[in-house]
Specification:
Length: about 500
């Protein structure tokens, strides 16, 4: 696909205007002269000020809307745990492991339909498919208020899983069409922090809703009424508001659209807005690193889903009543969002990914080991601190891992396909989490805590192995071809991934 640019796009003097910003442009672009293009059209200059102005508009216009969308998505996924503490099982007559089955069934259609919805999002545009998905899962959330028994809730959870399946993968892909590789982690972290905030807000909202003592509905049903109706309403606004891509954003001037296209062409995609080709995209699975990424996603999924689904049950062991238990989930979730932002900003600043992914896995491993090993009733402060470490170790890896492999894939189709499989695979591990936190193990849940810690420890080892391989392979390529700084290599040259001559791993 050809660029929409009417003339040349040139760099201003790197020494004068860079001011610490990394332009990530091909060396050949940096040597072009500041002259009009051959067809007489004026040259466009990518100065540091122009670059910051474009990114600032994306930060103000795109990120907040996506963050609110994901906040509602996270609320609609995590509200079942809050409802359980307010008597959902009793109201619906759930017995035995039926609650765990209801949690588990969500993840089966989630992983089965995500690749197809991801491909649909690539073909039709995330700006259309994401709001449509949001409208759908908002409607199913509202329908929870009408369920009367186990089978009704089971059916709704199945369709809820289908409608939410590709939401996060598509958001990741969508952001890669606006931000360069070195800008992505902190932006995705700001967006993903909405999940931690949602979990905290869910506890506060549940605290307030469960005070309702009058009305024709059980108090936990009002939780789904409020969250579902807000989700549906916001989806309509998002459908009207979101642009197709950076070069189609109505809030940019024509010159800024051309510069935005150029930014993506040189430091995100090999071909911007490329049409999806399934056979070509499937070649991403010929790379052994893709399978190792999927293995890390599996290890991430169990602690991630355990915290998201069962944090109220874990904290209930501290001995507080239902209302206070939900209130006490707020601080760990907020601290998880803060730690996510700290690690993500540090990752972008240092241009390193795997050390911070490994740090997250280390946090979650330590947190679950502490909680399983101590006498919680007599060491309440230590136990509560361990719950903080659990949230620190689940938020950061889920963002930085996705940024890590997206940074190494310049081909847009391969990028969206791997993301649409990897992210749902991590969420599929909710099947494991749902079936290890069993009622017969309450209130200690020792088997569940030990299993979750084991997955966290394995994820730590695999992350370190993949990082070591990328470091070694880069050194091997430098020894054979000469040292190459990946910041000077345009992603136009990296369509073939590791097969490209000047490819270097972004580790």
């Amino acid at each position: 696909m050809s660029s929409p640019t009417s003339g040349q796009i040139l760099l201003s003097s790197p020494e004068k205007d860079r001011k610490g910003e990394d332009y990530n442009l091909a060396a050949k672009e940096a040597t072009e002269s500041n002259s009009p293009s051959d067809d007489g059209a004026p040259a466009l200059i990518l100065t540091a000020a122009a670059d910051r102005a474009i990114v600032w508009k994306f930060d103000l216009r795109i990120l907040p809307v996506l963050a609110v969308m994901y906040l509602f998505n996270s609320l609609d996924k995590s509200n079942l745990g809050n409802a359980k503490t307010a008597g959902l099982e009793k109201t619906l007559g759930l017995v035995g492991d039926q609650y765990n089955i209801i949690l588990s069934v969500f993840f089966v259609p989630y992983v089965l339909t995500a690749p197809f919805l991801g491909i649909l999002g690539k073909k039709l545009g995330p700006n259309r498919v994401l709001p449509a998905m949001m409208f759908t899962f908002g409607c199913f959330t509202l329908l929870v208020t009408a369920v009367k028994n186990f089978s009704g809730l089971l059916a709704i959870r199945w369709f809820l899983g289908m409608s939410e399946s590709a939401f996060f993968p598509l958001v990741i892909y969508y952001l890669t069409t606006f931000y360069r590789r070195g800008e992505l982690a902190r932006r995705l972290a700001l967006f993903y922090a909405a999940q931690s905030i949602a979990s905290a807000f869910s506890g506060l909202l549940a605290f307030g809703v469960f005070q309702i003592t009058t009305g024709s509905l059980a108090d936990w049903r009002y939780l789904f009424v409020i969250e579902g109706s807000c989700t549906v309403t916001f989806s309509v606004f998002a459908f009207w508001y979101l642009p197709q891509s950076a070069s189609h954003a109505s809030f940019l001037s024509q010159e800024q659209k051309e510069l935005a296209y150029y930014r993506m062409q040189t430091d995100s995609s090999s071909i911007v807005n490329e049409k999806f080709n399934l056979r070509d995209s499937l070649t991403i699975f010929r790379h052994p690193t893709s399978w190792l990424i999927l293995g890390i996603e599996i290890c991430l999924g169990v602690p991630l889903q355990s915290v998201q689904l069962f944090l109220p049950q874990i904290i209930s062991r501290l001995g507080y009543d239902t209302v206070k238990t939900n209130l006490y989930t707020v601080a760990p979730n907020v601290s998880g969002a803060v730690m996510l932002l700290v690690l993500a900003f540090a990752s972008d600043l240092t241009r390193l990914r795997f050390p911070f992914v490994a740090a997250g896995f280390l946090f979650t491993f330590i947190g679950f080991v502490i909680y399983a090993a101590i006498d919680v009733e007599n060491q309440l402060q230590v136990a509560y601190f361990a719950s903080f470490m659990m949230t620190w170790g689940t938020s950061a890896p889920s963002v930085l891992l996705d940024v890590w492999y997206n940074n190494n894939i310049a081909h847009e189709g391969r990028r969206v396909l791997l993301t649409s499989i990897a992210v749902p695979l991590a969420n599929l591990m909710g099947v494991v989490s749902s079936n290890i936190f069993l009622n017969q193990d309450a209130p200690k849940y020792i088997p569940a805590l030990a299993t979750t810690a084991a997955f966290g420890g394995t994820g730590l080892v695999l992350t370190l192995l993949l990082g070591a391989y990328m470091l070694t392979d880069n050194r091997r390529r430098d020894a054979r071809q000469g040292k190459v700084d990946l910041r000077t290599v345009s992603t136009e040259e990296l369509r073939d991934g590791p097969a490209a001559e000047r490819f270097r791993w972004f580790y």
